């Protein structure tokens, strides 16, 4: 076995001597344990998860679904870019959810604006669906749908070739469809990307780079 255990361990003794886990000699990717825990992945607001090292190709169609829970009104959710301008991005800005797409001709944005600034950032679970179908894009939050017009109807493919960054991205990485640099703080679960008949559920424990992200451990409430 070469991977770590998604669990809490306490009161460990060796040869009748209790180990002091409060002041370890070294520590890596170990978070505190929570009395109440939910399914999901905890982002502590300092980093990101990087998926698909070889690069994710959005091209003409993609459907993204995820659930999020946060109290922050600014944060990166998902970004996939290219070295050029082609990219897609999902973010929370001033409590609104923005879905940006650039197929090469220019950025277009679908914006979901809730009634209250904090109504999506209330620490409760919210369901998000972002859909790109050629030049059309839409955003559905908790069943409420937003569509946007695209003047660039002949530009239909986002030719991305970079990893999927979730909850943030490294300082040296370019993201053409994100305006925020704020790392996500809260919990995410059920990240699914669908292209045609191919549906992929992403397991954050399989990310090739995780910083400030704790798979399989989502505290029941913010402390």
UniProtKB/TrEMBL annotation:
PROSITE patterns: LAM_G_DOMAIN. Residues 38-218 form the Laminin G domain. Signal peptide: none annotated. Transmembrane segments: none annotated. Pfam families: Laminin_G_2. It comes from the Eukaryota. InterPro entries: ConA-like_dom_sf, Laminin_G, Neurexin-related_CASP. Gene3D superfamilies: 2.60.120.200. PANTHER family: LAMININ SUBUNIT ALPHA-1 (PTHR15036:SF81), PIKACHURIN-LIKE PROTEIN (PTHR15036). This is LAMA1 protein. It comes from Machaerirhynchus nigripectus. The lineage of its organism: Eukaryota, Metazoa, Chordata, Craniata, Vertebrata.
